[in-house]
Amino acid sequence: MMGDSTPVLARALEASGRTVTRWHRFLHEGQETGPWPPAGSFDQVWVRLPRSAREVRMLLTAAAARIHPEGRVILYGAKDEGIRSADNHRPPALAPFHTALVKRRCRVLTATLAAAYAGGDDTLEAWATDVTLDWGAGPRAWRYFPGVFSHGRLDPATAMLLRHLDPPGPGARILDYGAGTGIIGRALMERVPGSTVHLLDPDAIALHAARTNVPGAFAVQASSLEHPALAGRGPYDLIVSNPPIHEGKRETLGVVESLVARGAALLAPTGRLVLVIQRRLPAEPLLRSAYSATRVLADEGPFRLWEAGV
Ligand SMILES: C[S@@+](CC[C@H](N)C(=O)[O-])C[C@H]1O[C@@H](n2cnc3c(N)ncnc32)[C@H](O)[C@@H]1O
Question: Exposed (0-12), middle (13-18) or buried (19+): which is 177, by Cβ within 10 Å?
Answer without folding.
Answer: buried
